[in-house]
DNA sequence: TAGTGGTCTAGACCACCCG
DNA sequence: GGGTGGTCTAGACCACTAT
C-alpha cells in the first residue's frame, strides 16, 4: 500500500505537475489518478494525514485540494470513515415535452417513488402567486412542499402553489397532486417551464443529501387549463447528478 | 463604519446564531445581512482581517464562511481589491422548443454575440461520434469548439461534431454553423437535447470566468435531417447564472 | 506603497464510524 | 479504542489592485 501511496503523491510528481499553487497541483494529481483509473470508483483515498506526509504538504492544503474535487462531484467524504471516489448514480430521464406527474412517471419506468411531505397548508398568497395564478384579492392559496424520493434516494424538492379555488384543502392530496386535480376536473393540459442551473444552499443540499454548492436543476413550472387559466405554480430543485431532462426540438418559425 | 462592522459581526450575535460550527454561524450571519439588505448588491465586505477581529475568530474561519457563499454565488472575491455582494446578471432566455442557432438567436434579441474559436479540425471519430452520427469506418469528423460570448460576457462553451460528409472542412465556418449547413442544404430540422446540471471543472470555469464548482447547464444535442440522418452532435456548457431555458409542455399521451 | 485577498504551515482538539 | 474526517488557531509570506 505504501508503494502505491508514494507513487501517486510523491513530492517530485507534485513539483513537476505544472504551474500553480500546491493545492492545485495536488488536485490535478488526484484528478488524473481518478481519470486514468489509478483510483477506481468506490476506492478509498488514503487518509488526509498520510497524503499530507507523503506529499510533504500540510493537511490543510490536502483538504483544500479534496474540497475542490468534492465540489466537482468527483470525490465524496464520509465523516469518520474516509474519502472515496464517487460512484456515478444512474440518471433518471425526464421527457420535457410531456406534462406528467412525478408519481406516474416513476411508476412507468418501474421505480419505486415516494414523497415525504415537508408542508401542506392554506395561506394568503404572495404577490408572485397572485400575479402568476391570477388570484383575486381575498382568495387563498394551497401550498404543498415535498421531498421526492426514487428508489430510496432523494431526488428533488418541490414547492407547489395551487389556487384555493381549485384545491381548497391541501390535506386531501396524499400521493399525486395531478391525480387529485384530475378528480376535480381541473387537471392542467399545458405548462411552461423555466429551467436553470444553480448551486444549492445549505437547507436544500441537506434535504437532498448532497454537499453545499452542489449543482441543481431549478425548474419553475406554470400549468394551465384548456381555458388558459393558470392552475398550479411549482418551483422544483432537482439533484444535478441524478436527473436528466430530454427535450425534442423542431425547426423554429422565426 | 466601525459601528456597522461590530453591529453585524459581534461575537454575541454569532454565539446566539443557532447551532453549528463557527464558520456556519458566520456564514448565516453574512447571508442574513445580504438578504435583509444590510449589505446591498455591489457593496464591499469589510476586509477578512477586520471581520476576523470583530467576530473574534481566526481569518481561516472567516475565509471558510466566505468560501461557501462564493460557491453559492452570493459573494464574489476580487484579488487585491475586496469581497463584494454579487450583482445578479440578467439572464438570457432560450426557447427550448425551437431549433435555432446561437448567432441568430442573440441577434433577434438585440444582443451583440460573438464567438472565440477554441478549436477547428478534422479527426478520426471517437466511438461516441461513430455511434451517434452513424459514421462508417474510415470516415472523418469535423470538430468545432468555441466560446460563446454575448454582450462581452462569456456565456457558454460549445463542442460540435459534424460528419465529414456534411462538412469536410471546418475552416469554412466563421460565424454560424447552421448557416453553413444550410448553404450545403444539410440544415437539421429536428433535434433531441439532454439537459442536466453540473459543477464546473477548473478548465471550463476559467473560460467562462466563474469560480470552480459554479453550477452550469450541460446540454447535449443531436440534430437530424428530415431524412432522419444525424448531422451534428454538440455538447455545450452554459453558465447557470446567466442562462434560462424555457420549454412548453402539453399533456402527454402515455 | 498600502491594503486586500491567496496560499501555506504545524499543531490542537472534536465528532463520527466501525470492529 | 483507534482511525477517520471536521473545525479552529496564530502567524507568515506571496500576489494582485489601487492610488
From TrEMBL, chains A, B:
<keyword id="KW-0805">Transcription regulation</keyword>
<dbReference type="InterPro" id="IPR036388">
    <property type="entry name" value="WH-like_DNA-bd_sf"/>
</dbReference>
<dbReference type="InterPro" id="IPR036390">
    <property type="entry name" value="WH_DNA-bd_sf"/>
</dbReference>
<dbReference type="InterPro" id="IPR011663">
    <property type="entry name" value="UTRA"/>
</dbReference>
<dbReference type="InterPro" id="IPR028978">
    <property type="entry name" value="Chorismate_lyase_/UTRA_dom_sf"/>
</dbReference>
<keyword id="KW-0238">DNA-binding</keyword>
<dbReference type="Pfam" id="PF00392">
    <property type="entry name" value="GntR"/>
</dbReference>
<protein>
    <submittedName>
        <fullName>GntR family transcriptional regulator</fullName>
    </submittedName>
</protein>
<feature type="domain" description="HTH gntR-type">
    <location>
        <begin position="20"/>
        <end position="88"/>
    </location>
</feature>
<dbReference type="InterPro" id="IPR050679">
    <property type="entry name" value="Bact_HTH_transcr_reg"/>
</dbReference>
<dbReference type="GO" id="GO:0045892">
    <property type="term" value="P:negative regulation of DNA-templated transcription"/>
</dbReference>
<dbReference type="InterPro" id="IPR000524">
    <property type="entry name" value="Tscrpt_reg_HTH_GntR"/>
</dbReference>
<dbReference type="Pfam" id="PF07702">
    <property type="entry name" value="UTRA"/>
</dbReference>
<keyword id="KW-0804">Transcription</keyword>
<dbReference type="GO" id="GO:0003700">
    <property type="term" value="F:DNA-binding transcription factor activity"/>
</dbReference>
<dbReference type="GO" id="GO:0003677">
    <property type="term" value="F:DNA binding"/>
</dbReference>
Amino acid at each position: 500500500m505504501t508503494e502505491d501511496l508514494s507513487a501517486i503523491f510523491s513530492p517530485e510528481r507534485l513539483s513537476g505537475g505544472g504551474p500553480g499553487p500546491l493545492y492545485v497541483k495536488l488536485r490535478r494529481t488526484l484528478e488524473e489518478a481518478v481519470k486514468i483509473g489509478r483510483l477506481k470508483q468506490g476506492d478509498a483515498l488514503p487518509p488526509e494525514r498520510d497524503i499530507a506526509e507523503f506529499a510533504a504538504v500540510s493537511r490543510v492544503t490536502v483538504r483544500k485540494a479534496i474540497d475542490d474535487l468534492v465540489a466537482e462531484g468527483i470525490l465524496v467524504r464520509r465523516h469518520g470513515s474516509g474519502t472515496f471516489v464517487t460512484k456515478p448514480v444512474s440518471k433518471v430521464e425526464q421527457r420535457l415535452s410531456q406534462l406528467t406527474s412525478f408519481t406516474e412517471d416513476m411508476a412507468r419506468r418501474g421505480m419505486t417513488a415516494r414523497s415525504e411531505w415537508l408542508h401542506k397548508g392554506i395561506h394568503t398568497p404572495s404577490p408572485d402567486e397572485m400575479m402568476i395564478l391570477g388570484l383575486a384579492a381575498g382568495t387563498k392559496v394551497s401550498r404543498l412542499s415535498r421531498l421526492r424520493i426514487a428508489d430510496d434516494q432523494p431526488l428533488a424538492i418541490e414547492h407547489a402553489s395551487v389556487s384555493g379555488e381549485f384545491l381548497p384543502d391541501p390535506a386531501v392530496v396524499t400521493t399525486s397532486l395531478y391525480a387529485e386535480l384530475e378528480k376535480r376536473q381541473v387537471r392542467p393540459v399545458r405548462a411552461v417551464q423555466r429551467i436553470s442551473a444553480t448551486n444549492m444552499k445549505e437547507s436544500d443540499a441537506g434535504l437532498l443529501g448532497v454537499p453545499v454548492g452542489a449543482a441543481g436543476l431549478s425548474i419553475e413550472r406554470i400549468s394551465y387549463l384548456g381555458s388558459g387559466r393558470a392552475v398550479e405554480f411549482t418551483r422544483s430543485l432537482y439533484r444535478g447528478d441524478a436527473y436528466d431532462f430530454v427535450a425534442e426540438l423542431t425547426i423554429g418559425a422565426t
